[in-house]
Design goal:
Low-confidence stretches: 1-8
Number of helices: 9
Shape: elongated
Number of domains: 2
Strand order of the largest sheet: 1-2-3-4-5-6-7
Bound molecules: fe (ii) ion
Oligomer: single chain
Number of strands: 22
Mean pLDDT: 89
Helix content: 10-25%
Length: 347
């Protein structure tokens, strides 16, 4: 129940608690915990001659972010607005900021400026080349074009060179409303949330592409001392080692176990079974996903055995507009049995 005179937007704003913490010299973490998402949305303000804001936050979060920025600088003096990729939390409030700060300009990748901001932004953006460095006063920012990393064709990251702070967007994501800064355990948190998220509708947010390893190596070589995360605690410590451990690809290594029970009445010994695990869509009852396996086994005449196979890909999932998942139907199809004497049964 809302108090009279209090709008739903006001109520939401009151539910969102914004904290400001200086995590590196002149780098202010503006952290808003959003109860609907159960995660933090962190913006980073670099206070300098030409103030720089990394991510705008959601449009509906603008009044929170504005209030927090106002506690550090005059918000109309904001000069640069950087972000990684075109998403509501990264740049949803861009036009609100352009309206507040008359000399502010968005800075992002060429793809971001050309494909998205040319239409979306109320004023033209500055497109940055890969590795371009620009100075905002005492601080030097290097832009790294990182297509599809963490996600999005237009993605890029910023590195503050003087104090070695990597503004790393969605990397090392972890949920909840944790402390502003930690000095250990960042990889454990990131790995835990990747693994926990795999079964949910928002899984696989970071694609593994032919460029992923080289991008991670490139970021590690910067030897960041501070990792400024958009979602979760910032980290101070060995940024190089943390990034290298992220290259270990926890999501890629996650695997699902598929099991088949085989009983034979044949007088011959089975040496190999080719089988499919088939998922059907619960709404259409049609086949939606098929995993194929060929398993080496040894099943004696009249005997039985459990056959196990692993695959990175999980079950077929149906997600409706409310974000809830539906359970798909499952069946196993045996396609071929190879016997020890070389004879073959085809299904
Ligand atoms: Fe993102
Ligand atoms: Fe994000």
């Amino acid at each position: 129940m809302l108090a009279s005179g209090c709008s739903i937007e006001d109520k939401r704003k009151n539910d969102m608690n914004t904290k400001v913490t200086e995590i590196a010299p002149d780098v202010y973490r503006i952290s808003t915990f959003h109860p609907d998402y159960g995660i933090q949305f962190n913006q980073f303000l670099i206070k300098d001659e030409e103030p720089f804001l990394m991510h705008t936050g959601f449009k509906k979060m603008f009044s929170n972010t504005l209030e927090a920025v106002s506690s550090v600088i005059d918000p109309s003096s904001l000069r640069w607005i950087g972000f990684s990729h075109f998403e509501a939390d990264e740049c949803g409030a861009l036009n609100e900021w352009l309206g507040t700060a008359p000399h502010a300009q968005a800075v992002c990748s060429f793809v971001g400026a050309e494909v998205n901001l040319k239409d979306f932004a109320d004023r033209p953006a500055r497109a940055l080349s890969d590795n371009e460095v620009f100075e905002i006063g005492r601080h030097r920012l290097r832009f790294l074009a990182t297509p599809h990393f963490p996600h999005g064709w237009d993605a890029g990251l910023f590195f503050e060179e003087n104090d070695r702070t990597l503004l790393c967007s969605d990397l090392f994501f972890h949920p909840g409303d944790p402390e502003p800064m930690i000095e250990s355990g960042i990889m454990e948190r990131a790995r835990g949330s990747i693994m926990a998220g795999l079964a949910g509708p928002l899984a696989k947010d970071m694609p593994y592409t032919p460029y992923t390893d080289s991008t991670l190596q490139r970021l590690a070589a910067l030897e960041p001392q501070t990792l400024a995360l958009m979602h979760g605690s910032s980290f101070r410590g060995d940024g190089r080692a943390s990034i290298i451990s992220l290259a270990d690809r926890p999501a890629e290594k996650a695997s699902y176990k598929y099991t088949l029970e085989v009983k034979t009445t044949s007088a011959k010994q089975i040496s190999r079974v080719a089988w499919d695990y088939v998922f059907t869509d619960p709404r259409t009852h049609r086949e939606a996903l098929r995993h194929s396996f060929e398993s080496k086994v040894k099943i004696r005449p009249g005997g039985s055995a459990k056959v196990t196979a692993y695959k990175n890909e999980g079950p077929y999932q149906v997600v409706d507009a409310n974000g809830s998942s539906g359970k798909s139907g499952e069946r196993i199809v045996i396609k071929r049995i190879v016997y020890s004497d070389g004879s073959v049964w085809e299904g």
